[in-house]
Design goal:
globular, Glycosyltransferase, mainly alpha, 4-stranded mixed beta sheet, single chain, cell membrane, 21 helices
Length: 572
């Protein structure tokens, strides 16, 4: 039209020149396909201002001009029908569809996991008298299925986790499933920070306890371990525990729904024991004598473990979908180790009855868990390579139990030796399998090596103090050295991936499953679009026919907005 305007300004306007200029202007067609079409399609045309009559080419006759003015009026009746609509527009480039300000200002795809959003936010806004636009909010939110809305306060069931995820740790989304969060972009850090990160605290804090034992036990006096080593490791453990705890507390505050999903996860729920076990390790490894610590510290740390025992063990025994025969996996050992660590620390602090109580509870459930894991059904999925280290959790429970019984009974007697020999055999049986140590990438599962290796080394040091000879001393020093090297290497690798490569915490898809299995139509709808009800197929057609040379763009007041990537957007 610039060419036509130039001709007009020069006073040399002719119908022929204007028509030629108009014909050179490319046109485009937008076909808006709603999410659930029904009936016959309707076609809507409007001018660029969406008001008034459409502009008519200057060369058309009066009859054609009347036709151009009448067609939009006749078709306006079908404008608000839930039908596909055709939008014709001139111009060489198809403009982006305008979105409302509320849609642009805020990305609501992660709101369903946020604490201060959804229902709570609407309630607070209502108390403040702020008007709510629920239609816009629903339109801007990512819709996977109609059932997955903020109004549904339920979390996925255990059967749903098993159906949507695969692998023994249930961390991989099945190919037939649809995540409720975008998988092709990085999520907020707190959403990607899992409860299993407390495994790092277990490994480092157990090292502080190991070096304190090497300093104090008679079997390792010849090493002349300096007390400063225990001090340095203990403070490093405290700093790491503080950082991890604060980070996860922030997740609890800002993404409470994600924490709820982790707690209901059949595997992740076991890692909720890890923070309290790590604290028990820190108390046991404190540079000062343990018996000088007030007993109230032990009661405070064991109260959460008792509550978790009642919750988890009750589900193992009576819950249909969370019974032990269905959810058994190596991480279940964490739910048992806490009882033995509490018994060990309590006996060391001078307590008697309650340490025996926790030892008895842990021993009973360890026996059941051990047999259940050995009798895993042949239909269970084989452990992938990157998760093989969790097998070392088999070693942790009997080794810590042997130390606990040693402190309860006052000597490394036959009962303690029985448990120690079981842990030593399991340790050797895993070490000789060289295939477990190669061919897999680094992940947080590597920390499963550290804590059990350290616990076996601790038990060996106590055993060498009871059976003192060259062989037992060499075994104690050798296993302690392996544990130290393993923790140092894994800690260095973790820092490298966390701060340099920045790939330590990938998107945690295990918490992003739908509450119900999506229907086939819902899966197809998700593939077509990630966040809108209306799909747009854009056809850019230069030199359209003369009857449609002047098109208009129909903006449906915020109900239509542009989506990319999911539905094919073709240009002809």
């Amino acid at each position: 039209m610039e060419a036509a305007d130039a001709v007009v300004s020069g006073g040399r306007t002719t119908k022929k020149a204007a028509a030629a200029a108009y014909a050179e202007t490319p046109s485009s067609v937008l076909i808006n396909v709603p999410g659930s079409p029904s009936g016959m399609p309707s076609f809507v045309c409007a001018n660029e201002a969406d008001v008034g009559a459409p502009a008519v080419p200057p060369t058309v006759s009066k009859v054609e001009r009347a036709h151009h003015l009448a067609v939009p009026q006749l078709l306006k009746q079908a404008r608000h029908h839930s039908q596909p609509s055709l939008v014709v527009r001139t111009g060489g480039e198809v403009p982006a569809v305008l979105r409302s300000d509320s849609m642009r200002d805020r990305d609501r795809r992660f709101d369903q996991f946020k604490t201060f959003s959804g229902r709570l936010e609407r309630q607070l806004s209502s108390l403040r008298g702020v008007p709510q636009n629920t239609d816009v909010e629903k339109g801007a939110a990512s819709k996977i299925s109609e059932e997955d809305t903020d109004e549904d306060d339920e979390v996925p069931t255990a059967d749903r986790y098993f159906a949507a995820l695969e692998g023994p740790e249930l961390e991989t989304l099945r190919s037939t499933e649809v995540a409720v969060l975008p998988k092709d972009e990085t999520w907020p850090f707190l959403l990607r920070f899992p409860i299993s990160a407390f495994g790092m605290c277990l490994g480092v804090s157990s090292q502080a306890m190991l070096w304190k034992t090497l300093e104090s036990e008679p079997s390792t006096k010849f090493l002349h371990v300096h007390p400063a080593t225990n001090h340095v490791l203990w403070w490093i453990s405290v700093a790491l525990m503080v950082v991890v705890s604060i980070t996860y507390l922030l997740k609890v505050v800002f993404y409470f729904e994600a924490v709820r999903r982790e707690f209901h996860h059949p595997v992740r729920v076991n890692f909720f024991f890890a923070p309290w076990i790590a604290c028990l390790f820190l108390v046991k490894g404190v540079p000062h004598p343990v018996w000088e610590i007030h007993h109230a510290v032990w009661y405070v740390l064991m109260a959460p473990i008792l509550c978790l025992d009642l919750k988890i063990y009750g589900q193992w025994m009576s819950s249909g979908e969370r019974r032990l025969s269905k959810v058994a996996n190596p991480s279940n050992h964490l739910a048992v180790v806490g009882n033995f660590v509490g018994a060990l620390l309590g006996a060391r602090m001078g307590l008697r009855e309650l340490p025996i109580f926790f030892f008895a509870v842990g021993l009973a459930h360890y026996a059941v868990l051990f047999v259940t894991l050995y009798q895993r059904l042949p239909t269970n999925v084989q452990l992938p390579k990157e998760l093989h280290p969790v097998f070392f959790l088999f070693v942790a429970a009997p080794s810590v139990a042997s130390m606990a019984w040693t402190r309860i009974s006052g000597e490394f007697n036959d009962g303690a030796k029985l448990l120690y020999f079981i842990s030593l055999f399991l340790y050797v049986s895993l070490v000789v399998r060289v295939n477990l140590f190669r061919g897999f990438r680094f992940s947080l599962a590597w920390w499963a090596y550290t804590f059990p290796m350290t616990s076996v080394a601790l038990a060996t040091v106590l055993y060498a103090s009871e059976v003192d000879n060259v062989l037992t001393r060499s075994l104690a020093v050798g296993l302690s050295g392996i544990a130290v090297v393993t923790v140092t290497g894994v800690l260095a690798t973790t820092m490298y991936h966390a701060f340099l490569r920045k790939d330590l915490f990938p998107n945690d898809v295990s918490i992003a499953i739908t509450r119900r299995r999506p229907k086939f139509s819902k899966i197809l709808a998700h593939l077509r679009s990630s966040s809108s009800d209306v799909k747009e197929l854009v056809l850019s057609i230069p030199n359209f026919s003369s009857n449609s040379k002047q098109g208009a763009y129909c903006d449906d007041a915020g109900s239509i907005y542009k989506t990319r990537g999911s539905v094919g957007e073709s240009t002809v």
